[in-house]
Amino acid sequence: MPFSKPEKSRFRRVNETTELCDISQLGLDFVPVASYSVQPRKETEPMNQELIDVLETKIGALVEKYNDLKEENAMLHEEIQRLSNDREGIKARVDAILGKLDGI
Length: 104
Hints:
This protein is an all-alpha fold. It has 1 helix and no strands. It has a domain at 48-104.
């Protein structure tokens, strides 16, 4: 038997007609989606071999410079360690001399 009153549901129906509203009336500053992202270009030509060679040369030079700096850094750390040991030795000798002077 059909009911004369509409069924009460805990879910509300969304209006089937969608109204367009003016977002600027809300006081929000929206930027259109198209300005957020730029679609990547599709390259139709393969990358120029000369550019690849130049890039390879620059990367090779960079790796060589990195290795040189790494070796120099290791040598400098060894020199720092050697100088620290020399400093400790000199400090011990100066302390011994000052101790002798205090005894005189």
